[in-house]
Amino acid sequence: MPVLRLGLPKGSLEETTIEMFRKAGYKITVQSRSYYPAIDDAEIECIMIRAQEMARYVQEGILDAGLTGHDWVVETGADVLEVAELVYGKVGRKPLRWVLAVPEKSDINGPRDLAGKRIATEAVGMTKRYLEKHGVTAAVEFSWGATEVKPPRLADAIVEITETGSSLKANNLRIVDTLCETTTRFIANQDAYKDAWKKAKIDRLALLLQSVLRAESKVGLMLNVQQANLKKVLGIMPALHRPTVSPLAEEGWFALMTVVDETVVREIVPELLAAGAEGIVEFPLSKVVP
Length: 290
Known about the structure:
Shape: globular
Order of helices and strands: EHEEEHEHEEEHEEHEEHHEHEEHE
Number of strands: 16
CATH architecture of the largest domain: 3-Layer(aba) Sandwich
Strand order of the largest sheet: 4-1-5-12-6
Mean pLDDT: 92
Distance between the termini: 31 Å
Strand content: 25-35%
Oligomer: single chain
Number of helices: 9
Number of domains: 3
Radius of gyration: 24 Å
Helix content: 25-40%
Structural class: alpha/beta
CATH class of the largest domain: Alpha Beta
């Protein structure tokens, strides 16, 4: 039986990724100290790998596919195929930023002020390209972690990834510049994606994962309405494409169902009631497939 070797990100994205797979219909169980989670799909073999290393292992064919940040694909220069963009993080659902940060009282206010300074970061290649772009010479040192605590004694500045900026603020750092924005990508090995079976499996996973993220900001809405009020209610209801209208057992009554942005519901429910809608029900969605 063919098997897809899938890399899952170890670390900050681990729990969020496993929960996303659960909503997509896959149960992943991680045993303590094990890097080989169990998944309820005999055609998939999971391995936990740090996002920083994922692209390299996918390029080399050790993994057929995996999830990692676009920043690490660029940083490592890996020749992989980016199958899908998956905008999610540990806290929220927005792109992450690699930023230049310095102590609050630092006299560094821009890239030009970095000349002759020491910068700590995990993204050494990205930082060196940033300095070259601005014509600045500075020492760039690889940081093995806890980068935020290194200024001012161990480094003059850092280049660090942030989602909310709260960790930087907690360490009395301020953001000077943004080097790049990045999102999670579902990547595949070039040769693996040429295999018909593996390509179909990868595409199916990508579709389901994207449908989970698409559903997070939306809800389903059901209601009943008399025929006399149908046109008025339809004029109020937004829809992903168009509302589903079904006749009820009682003549002259219809059931309407649609998918809407969650933030819209609070605005339109009073309007729907005033237009003659009855029995309004809002329900959560696990997937939205276009």
